[in-house]
Automatic annotation (TrEMBL):
The keyword Iron does not apply. It holds the Pfam family Pyr_redox_2. Residues 5-149, 185-280 form the FAD/NAD(P)-binding domain. InterPro entries: FAD/NAD-bd_sf, FAD/NAD-binding_dom, Ferredoxin-NADP_redctase_2. Coiled coil: none annotated. Its cofactor is FAD. This is NAD(P)/FAD-dependent oxidoreductase. Keywords: Flavoprotein, Oxidoreductase. Homodimer. It comes from the Bacteria.
Length: 301
């Protein structure tokens, strides 16, 4: 069985970027992706210079097309199901949903994260009229009557303060949680209304929010807004492979993708267990790939 230089797991911006750098470095790699990217419901991606407003699927297709120029890069539309490391992490045996098995010297984990919403119905509007990132979607929501849905005070305060830059017509919903007097006062100084009543239903058509209904029977008219989801890694590869995590669940690295485990690298949202922009994720993939290539070079020279 041929041994790959590196397997990159995840074809989002970090995985695509890493694959491009390694392909240009003439490394024999395999990129895996199974189309479960977090931004699949996003209508447009913003903030990536020269690609502002691009659809995420188009972004991915352009990236995959560019990789075709490099003969040492292979792509598998499949899910990695198992990674087995040998003694000393010198090689990794990788099994995939396509029934194939691979051997590689190094691995880049770039599988991203996913959201969890505690309020039923949010996903129906997510990506069209409800969003999580003001820097990605704040411009399109400027000056509109917006809602901020957050069930932790620190999230409610931070998100509201940031969004206020784009729209001052804000109502904060905490879904049954009462803000501290100090926290409430911060928002009220800006004439921002706070509703702590539990949310019963979100009402709208074709993904576009119109109003929110509360358990009290009251309703609130809003055209869109921002939410604070809970995020989680889509798999436990980092943990199972022994990568060290900090108290917040972030994978510890040297700052350029190397984890605490030899020959295991990480990039993008997978590392932080928090959302990130296309630009930052791509940069993280670039850094991780340079680390991989540097280590291969020094080990073999």
């Amino acid at each position: 069985m041929n041994v790959l230089d590196c397997i990159v797991i995840g074809g989002g911006p970090s995985g695509l970027s890493a694959s491009l750098i390694l392909g240009r470095a003439r490394r024999k790699i395999m990129l895996f992706d199974d189309d479960t990217n977090r931004n699949t419901m996003t209508q447009e991606s913003h903030g990536f210079i020269t690609r502002d407003g691009i659809k995420p699927q188009e972004f991915k297709e352009l990236g995959l097309k560019e990789l075709e120029k490099y003969p040492s890069v292979s792509f598998a539309h499949a899910t990695v199901t198992e990674i087995i490391k040998d003694k000393g992490n010198e090689k990794f045996f990788v099994k995939a949903s396509n029934g194939q098995e691979y051997v590689t010297e190094k691995i880049i984990l770039a599988t991203g994260i996913q959201e969890v919403f505690s309020i039923q119905g949010i996903r129906e509007f997510y990506g069209k009229s409800l969003f999580s990132c003001p820097y990605c979607d704040g411009w399109e929501q400027r000056d509109k009557p917006l809602v901020v849905i957050a069930e932790k005070e620190k999230h409610a305060l931070h998100l509201t303060k940031v969004i206020y830059n784009w729209s001052e017509d804000l109502v904060v919903l905490t879904n049954g949680i009462t803000l501290s007097p100090e926290g409430a006062a911060e928002l009220q100084r800006r004439n921002i209304k706070i509703i702590s009543d539990p949310i019963k239903n979100l009402i709208g058509e074709d993904g576009y929010l119109q109003k929110i209904e509360f358990e009290t029977g009251e309703t609130l008219l809003r055209s869109g807004g921002f939410v604070a989801p809970i995020y989680y890694r889509t798999n436990q590869f980092a943990e199972k492979l022994g990568c060290e995590l900090d108290e917040d669940g972030k994978v510890k690295t040297d700052g350029v993708g190397r984890t605490s485990e030899k020959n295991i690298y990480i990039a993008g949202e997978t590392e932080r267990n928090r959302p990130s922009s296309l630009m930052i994720s791509a940069a993280k993939g670039n850094k991780a790939a340079v680390s991989v290539n540097t280590d291969l070079t020094m080990e073999r020279f």
